[in-house]
Amino acid sequence: MGRFLVAAVALAFLGGIACASRGVALPAIVAGAALACCRNCGPAALRATLLAAFALGALDVLAFAGASDDPGDAHVRRFPVTVVETESTALDRWSAVVRLADGERALIDGTGAMPIAGVRLLVRGKREAFDGARNPGEPSERDLEAERGITWRIAGAHVLSRAAPDPGDATLWIPRARAWASARLHATLPEPGATILAGAMWGERGALPPELRAEFQETGTVHILVTAGLHLGVVAALALALLRALRCGRIASSLAAIAILWAYAAFSGGHLPAVRAATMLSFALLAHAAGRAALSWNALAIAAAVIAAAHPRTLESASFGLSFSCVAAILGFAKPLCERFERAGIPRIVAELFGVSVAAQIGTWPLTAATFLIVAPYAPLANALIVPVVGVAMLGGFAALAATPLPPLAALIDNVEISLLDWIVTCVRGIGALPGAHIVATPPPEWALAAYDATLALGIVALVRGARLRFALLGLAAASALCLWPPRPVSHDLVVTAIDVGQADAILIRTPAGHAFLVDAGGRLERGSAQNDSTAEAIGERIVVPFLVRQGVHHLDAILLSHPHGDHAGGIAPVLRSLGAGGFADSGQMYAGHAYHDALDVARELAVRMLEPRGGTVWRTDDGVTLRFYGPTQPYVAGSRNDINSNSLVFRLEYKRFHMLFTGDAGAETEARLLGNGDDLRADVLKVGHHGSAYGTTPRFVQEVAPHAAIISVGRHNLFGHPAPATIDALMSRGIRIYRTDEGGAVIVRSDGDRYTVGSFLNAAGTTAYAQES
């Protein structure tokens, strides 16, 4: 134990943080105290030390938990801000990280000329906190932005005035230097190379083509676009090599390299991943200065404990787990893998590249699958081919910036850089095009991830004690199978989830036998006719597709598009590209929106069967679920406030005694037609039409449907005033329980056919159970 004593104490400290974060610190401390009193559990001093470390970790969490979350400002006001960094998001749109007067950072979106770093703006808007998760399984936007050091969003930001940078503000020297370096790269290197290099050198969030960014993700190489361990490791290695060339001693070069490392972390923006990597490498350099092995379990554990102590919430973040799992796996598996490859006749340098790459994949793939929802089988190959080139490209980038006063030399370096960056893009695209280059993966359950981590730790311990590599790999293979095909709880209920997609609609229907139907797919209302691109589709890519995959949906039985507006059709093309569908049901109306036509084009390319259900159409599944369509009917409703809305698909979902009515964006004209047709519209749950607008959900219609619960899919602070007070009154006057996505996030309906429950994701305690009347 003496060899790993420091690591054991650090791990006990981390255990205290983890238990306190999960609310089980006190029981764990009691159990630890019982063990500490047990004479058969090691020396008394060791037991007491580990218990004390554990308790300190728990107290650290409590110390950081004192401040409550500030929701922001309720009213629009003016903010003097200073631009820290910017990025272009579209032709005339930009996003900027700005510093508020109190020193905190916020995110704003703007139009027109993009401001440079240091420019002072007067902005009018509303200061809001970022969202936590609003749908089951969804990551927290608040935590993701905290990794970048950003606390607020200025919603509806409008720039009132601009002023030149203050040359005497020393806090802006680094952002302005970074902006100059970015402008230099983008002026001399072609795209996408300039964006890739800027991402590698200081984590610039450039606008890569969506398909190329997806290929980086699918080949397991997206990490090169974010300044973290790889990039700071390159800087540390370059600094040590340079200092040794200048004949600095081991101690002096190590300490100077630490200073250079932290200066580079600050230059890259000081984001948490860079700070985490700098901390980890600083302990490695200190160990090197002391004449010890730079990579050791004690140094790694101390670095993890220091980072977690400063930011307890980061311990459960994916980036923290990926960072330390990667290094731990390299530390435990890289050497034996390299030796195995060398014995197989592979040249040493190639064996080392593949050994490190495979070890890194061993440490990170389950968490990568859980975070990014893909398994990248060729990631070791991609990283072995690309990562060394990234290091050389970073060196060339530094050299090109330094050679700016010497244009001929800078041009020569730029030509070399173009070749290196072309190699990276070629590798990513080539490997991404291989069969099975990426596999869509539903996240493994937490217990499967814990089992894999435990197996990984046991394998490392076994290797340290001289066990054969094959036994460790066999154990990991079994744990990997458990992550890929874990036994999951089987539900025999009908489950309907109204996904929180803001001011839009997207509803997933899962039948008892696992059939999956998607009713609308989120998006954003489009203005004007078809365009070359649509922001409506971003909601589908960012929210709807990940939600479906996390729910275990890898293929849809059918997509039902209530009507072609962008706030309903936006996500269909991304969903079809990612998951496919057996059928695409459409209301059959003509509409010029880009998202709708893109959905039709993708459906045509994939040979998805097009369906146009009409009033009287009935679909039945093999597990007793019926979709009974009431509209649209011919002739289409004409002359209404919005004919596209009025001719939405309207259908009733039936499962035994449970009924739920879906109305799309249908308004009062459609409701009157349905009532005039004499259809049986009674339902236990009503999905309220048109986001609760004042032009539908009439009292007579509500009386005829007679629901116990109503669901309104609506965005917070929307510009339309939805839901309308008249709609709310029409529902509440009949004692109907209202569930809104703007207030409670996703709304989940679950029924066994006899009883059903309705509840909001953010208010599980408010879930209400109902029993059908006889």
Strand line-up across the major sheet: 13-12-11-10-9-8-21-22-23
Compute the number of helices.
26
- Give the class-level CATH name of the largest domain: Alpha Beta
Uncertain stretches: none
- Please state roughly what percent of the residues sit in beta strands, choosing from under 5%, 5-15%, 15-25%, 25-35%, 35-45% or over 45%: 15-25%
What structural class do the secondary elements suggest?
A: alpha/beta
Could you name the CATH topology of the largest domain? Metallo-beta-lactamase, Chain A
Please tell me how large the radius of gyration is.
29 Å
Number of distinct beta strands: 23
Give the total of domains: 4
Q: How much helicity do the residues have?
A: 40-55%
Shape summary: globular
Measured distance between first and last alpha carbons: 68 Å
**Biggest sheet architecture:** 9 strands, mixed
Architecture per CATH nomenclature, i.e. the level-2 architecture of the largest domain:
4-Layer Sandwich
- Going by CATH, the homologous superfamily of the largest domain would be Ribonuclease Z/Hydroxyacylglutathione hydrolase-like
Round the mean pLDDT to the nearest integer and report it: 88
